[in-house]
Every structure is written in structure tokens, then in C-alpha cells.
Amino acid sequence: MSAAERTARGWPGLDLLARLPAWSRFVLVTLAVLACGVVASRPATAAKDEPLTGDAAIASAAVDALRHPSAADPLAAFPADFNAVMGRSPSAVPAGDGTLRAADPSGDCSGPAGATTWDFDLSCKSHDLGYDLLRYAEIKGQPLPQSARRELDTRLELDMHDRCRVNPRGSESQCHAVASVYAAGLEFNSWRQRWSAPGHEPVLAWGFGSAVVVLLLLARVPGARARRRDEGPETAHPAPLPASPDRYATFLRLAGIGLVVAGQSLLTLSRWSGFGSQWLWVAAWVLQAVPVFFFAGGHANLLAWQAVRADHGGYGRYLTGRLTWLLRPVLAFVLAWLVLPLPLQLLDVPEDGVELFGRLIAQPLWFVGVYLVAVAATPLMAALHRRARLLTPFALVALMAVVDAVRGAHEWRTGGYTTLVLGALLFQQLGFCYADGSLARVRRSAYAGLALVSAPALGALLVLGGHPGTAVALPGDDAAGAGSPTALLLVLALGQLCLVMLLRERATAWLAGGAPWRVVHYARTAPMTLYLGYLTALAAVVGSLGLLDSPSTAMTWLLISGVPRWPALLVLLLLPLLRAFHRFERHQALPLCRTRETHRTRLAVTLGVGYGALGVVGFVVTGFAGQAGSLGGLQVDALQNLIHLLLGWYLVHVARSGACHDRGPWLLTALACVPPMLVLEPTSSVLALHGATIAVALLASAAKQDQQRAPEHWQPREALQHP
């Protein structure tokens, strides 16, 4: 096979990785995971830019006494209740340079060699006592600034090198080398913890979780021999394709998500700039095209399910085809954004702006998570559509109203997510009606009348009902409250879908032209490339307007006070990433589907879609930083989100390849569910979900493995591999 043919079958980077020796693949993947883990494990900044008062101010003065030792007693500057709060009993100890150092004689020393070789013991214990002062201030509710920990680390480094000169023990060069290595490790750990107070970290969970991420990635990257086997025969015949795609429905799917992303960015930028977003409520609701996206998505999902059934396929084959095209670019995007901030943080740019921008980027991923649920529910909802075409939408509306009432009466946080899912299923159900031609039989005058009525009705509900001007949470908002009241959502959907049907004929004629359809076709085959291009332009706008740091001019766009401006650096990093994603999406091709409809296939794809959706929506809640969050009662963080997303991606792959009939994938699935249970305080929901998955995976691995892989066959590409 020629290089061009290989490129057409898959991403060249993956092919190159597969051709490397197994040990080289292991090293490269491990290094990449460690880099992602370092970024993801960094906690949110705790220090606040405000004057210190009370006990925190006294603790800051005590830290100053430790940073600048003298002959005066450093304990005189300590808070009165420090010993009681921290359980320490420090004393003033004379040092060899004539100064007094505060140290706890019974405390441990985390420095190298301690008192055994070069006598770093006193300096090390004084440094550790300084860390206790940082923890004390955090307990008091006013964390000390980052400079406090920086200078404590610098003090220890200077003291160690001083001891090497005063007490070399015949090996001064070795002593300086040990001191330099330890100082570098100390600085790295302090940087990783954002120079805040050291705290208890789930080291076991993070270490085990990183190992699981490595295993999931290595299990998904085949060797060269497996790659050649997966390429399959050149004479494979594709399955029958459905009728020619509805260009208008394809356009609606892309336009719907594009309008929501643009509207959310507009509101976020207006908030960052100080321009009140309440003045933009009209534009916000015009751009709130959530119903249109799921309406058009329902059309695509129903056609995909019908195409698989016509080709004698089932639920497992349908889900693997629909999910593979979606999870691969999303996972690549998430991995890229976990690594992308690393150069910015190494340059010590302000992390607040980078974190806020990262949350803005992660926010639209809730679309993907909810859409995964809608895709998985399509066979069931299609059956309901056949048996109760009119009753099903009204039942979903009633459920939304009940959830909305319970949510308002009992402050049910999970109700927001439930409303989003029910709304997506409702709009998908209307998309089924569009796909079978039911909506085309309604008179245009009826659509026009309903569209005219919906606009003033929506305005009245907004003004008289006192509802917010937007239904989508912005970065920093509570994601659980993202769902709007049911009445508002239904009126908005009514108006938008009526307009969609009114414009159908003209838009279809417009898309029949060559140029418009070529643009739409490119957008649906490279959505993440377009999104990265949009983010590049957005970062340039944020940097130019100084929305997250300070306004810039042509001369200060790259540097400000000698420090690189993070938006400019982000743009420079995004440009080569754009090229990589373009090649990834344009050249990716799905491997042959070797699965057959078995219990293991259906179990694998069901768990895959569940954990994939959990991982995607988890990043919406936590962002790409190290802070934790709550998702429907589940405590999640960046590493757990990554494991969930990788596990979903892996399970869909093993179902598609037929490997779900082997024992290994199920044992790896059980292993991947262990890290979330190793956090410091796992909740009952976390234990229940992952414990149940472990039990099911072990049962699947222990059962008799008598399923054979089916003959190779292709999926219906147009119906399955694009949104």
C-alpha cells in the first residue's frame, strides 16, 4: 500500500506511532500522560488579591521573619494560637551563622540527607515550619500570596548551599549538586501547587489514575502488525447507503451549534469587558439555537438507525458507528488542551486568565455530552415514535414540567441536567417527524402564525416572569442551573422550528449550489478544526482588548512589562495545532467493523456512551484545571474526567473491533474504575457507580468467551460517520 493510501486511511501521526517499537510507544505515551497529569493536577489559585488582616497578617509577618533570619527571636512574630491550631511546638535554635531559626525539634525534615551528611536539618525544619504558617493562614480564610512560598523555598536553597561551603565534609561539589537537584524538585512541586499552601493530595489516586490513562492509550494504539491487519482487504464492499443526505438538515446541525457558541462567547466577552450582559438579552435568545441543533440531530440519528436496521445490524453496530466519529476528535481536543497550557504556565503567565479562557472553551462540550445520550436513546425513541407519534412529545413535555416544578420547590441541583436531557429528547423526537415527512405536510400558514405568536410570548415570559436573559451558563456560573424554565424553552423552540420549516424550501435551493454546500461539507468533516480556528481568533480578540489582563496596542500585544502576554502566546501555540487537527480530521477513517450483535457488544457500547458523556460533561463542570466539581451528585475532577472519556472511547473501539469478546478489555475496564474510588473522600454515588461497573466488567470477563468475531463489513458512512 502506498503512503498516500495509508494517509487516506488514518491519521499519519497514529500510523507513525504504531510503527515504533513497543518500548518507545510506552515511553512516549507515558511522558505525554505525565505532562497532562501535571497540568490537570494543579489546584485552583487560593490566594486573593486583597490586604491581609488579623491572624493572617501576623502569619505573613512570621513568614517574613523566617525568610530574613536575624539574631532576634523569630517566634515573637508567630500568631498566639499557632501551636494550638497546627499542633506544633517550635523553638528558637541558634544557627551556625549567628542567627536564630524557628524549628520544631520533633518535626520531620523533607530535605535530602538531613543531619547525617551536610547538616541540612535545621534549615529544612525551619522551611517546613514556614509551610505550616502557609497552611495556618489558609485555615484562617486568607491564604498568603504566592511570593511567600517562593521566598521560603529560596531561603532553603540559599541555606543548603551555605552549608555546603561551611561544612563540605570533603565533597563540596557533590553537596552543591544535591542541593541544586533538591531545590529544582522543590521549585517544581511548588509550581505544580501554584505556590499556594501545601495540602493533602490524593497521591495514590493520581498515581494509579495516570497509570490507567497510560494503559488505556497503549491498549488503543495498536502495533504495526495490528495496524496492517486492521487495514483490511482492499476489495471490501460498503453496506448499502441510505438516500442522499438532506443538505438542509446538515446545515441546521452546524448552524445550531455555531450560533450557540457564538452567543455564549458574546455574552462572556461582554461580562469580561464590564458591559452588562442584560443589554444583550435579545441577541442571546436569538442565538440560543439549542432546539434547532437537536431537532436536526434527531433527523440524522433516525436515518442512521434505519440504515443499520436495513443492513441487518443492531444497537451495537449503530452506536459504534455514530460514536466513533464523535469521540475521536473530542478526545484529541481535550488532550491537546490539557497539554497546551503547559508552555504558558512554564513561562509563569497569570493563570487566572488562562483558566477562565479554558472554561469558556470547555463550556460548549455539554452539547456533545447531551448529544451522546440522545444518540444512545434513538432506537428506543424511534420505537416510541412508531407506536405513539403524538403521545411521546407530550409525555416528554409533561416530564419536563414535573422536573421543573420539583427543581424549583426543592432546589434539586441535578434537575438542570435532567431538563437538558429531556429537552434534547423532545427536540430529537420532532426531528423524527421531520425525517418521516410529517412536518412537511403542515401548512405554511400554520408555521407562520405560530412563529408570529411565539416572539411576543417569549418576550412576555422574559419580562413579566423575571427570568434570566440567557439559558446557558457562562464560565464561572453554576452548570447545574444551566437549564431554563420549561415554558421559556418550549416557546423558544416553537418559534425557531417554525422558522426552520418556513425557510426550508429556499434554504434547500440555496444549498443546491456548489459553493454553499462545499462549505457545509467541509464544516461537518472538520468541526474541531473550525472550532480551533474560532478559538484562535477569539484569543486574539481577548488579547487585543485586554479583557483578562490589560488593553494592548500594536507594540504591547506580545509583551507587557517584559512578561509575555498569554493570549499572544496562546495564538502562537494554536496555529500549529490547527494544522495538526486539520490533518487528523481530514484523513481519519474508521476501521472495519468486525463486531456482531451480542450481549457483550451491547454492554460495551452502553458503558462506552455512558462514560464518554460523563467525561465530556465533567470537563464542562470542572474546566481543564485541577479543581473538583459536582456532576449530578458525582464528585469529579480533571483526571477522573479524562479517565471516563478515555474509557468510553476505548469501550466503543473494542465493541467495533470485536475485542469485547475477549477477557482483557473487561479487566482493563474494571481497573479503570478503581482510581475514582481512591480519592480522599469518595462519595457514595462515586463508589456505587464505579463499584457496579467493576462487578459487571468482572462478570463479563469471567463468563465463557465463546463469541467469535463476525466477518468484516463497513458501516453506512454518510449516515453514521458525520453529525
From TrEMBL:
<feature type="transmembrane region" description="Helical">
    <location>
        <begin position="447"/>
        <end position="466"/>
    </location>
</feature>
<dbReference type="InterPro" id="IPR002656">
    <property type="entry name" value="Acyl_transf_3_dom"/>
</dbReference>
<feature type="transmembrane region" description="Helical">
    <location>
        <begin position="554"/>
        <end position="578"/>
    </location>
</feature>
<dbReference type="GO" id="GO:0016747">
    <property type="term" value="F:acyltransferase activity, transferring groups other than amino-acyl groups"/>
</dbReference>
<dbReference type="Pfam" id="PF09056">
    <property type="entry name" value="Phospholip_A2_3"/>
</dbReference>
<feature type="transmembrane region" description="Helical">
    <location>
        <begin position="528"/>
        <end position="548"/>
    </location>
</feature>
<keyword id="KW-1133">Transmembrane helix</keyword>
<dbReference type="InterPro" id="IPR036444">
    <property type="entry name" value="PLipase_A2_dom_sf"/>
</dbReference>
<dbReference type="InterPro" id="IPR015141">
    <property type="entry name" value="PLipase_A2_prok/fun"/>
</dbReference>
<feature type="transmembrane region" description="Helical">
    <location>
        <begin position="686"/>
        <end position="703"/>
    </location>
</feature>
<feature type="transmembrane region" description="Helical">
    <location>
        <begin position="251"/>
        <end position="273"/>
    </location>
</feature>
<dbReference type="GO" id="GO:0050482">
    <property type="term" value="P:arachidonate secretion"/>
</dbReference>
<feature type="domain" description="Acyltransferase 3">
    <location>
        <begin position="251"/>
        <end position="560"/>
    </location>
</feature>
<keyword id="KW-0472">Membrane</keyword>
<feature type="transmembrane region" description="Helical">
    <location>
        <begin position="486"/>
        <end position="503"/>
    </location>
</feature>
<feature type="transmembrane region" description="Helical">
    <location>
        <begin position="390"/>
        <end position="409"/>
    </location>
</feature>
<dbReference type="Pfam" id="PF01757">
    <property type="entry name" value="Acyl_transf_3"/>
</dbReference>
<protein>
    <recommendedName>
        <fullName>Acyltransferase 3 domain-containing protein</fullName>
    </recommendedName>
</protein>
<keyword id="KW-0812">Transmembrane</keyword>
<feature type="transmembrane region" description="Helical">
    <location>
        <begin position="415"/>
        <end position="435"/>
    </location>
</feature>
<feature type="transmembrane region" description="Helical">
    <location>
        <begin position="603"/>
        <end position="625"/>
    </location>
</feature>
<feature type="transmembrane region" description="Helical">
    <location>
        <begin position="364"/>
        <end position="383"/>
    </location>
</feature>
<feature type="transmembrane region" description="Helical">
    <location>
        <begin position="325"/>
        <end position="344"/>
    </location>
</feature>
<dbReference type="GO" id="GO:0004623">
    <property type="term" value="F:phospholipase A2 activity"/>
</dbReference>
<dbReference type="GO" id="GO:0006644">
    <property type="term" value="P:phospholipid metabolic process"/>
</dbReference>
<feature type="transmembrane region" description="Helical">
    <location>
        <begin position="203"/>
        <end position="221"/>
    </location>
</feature>
<feature type="transmembrane region" description="Helical">
    <location>
        <begin position="279"/>
        <end position="304"/>
    </location>
</feature>
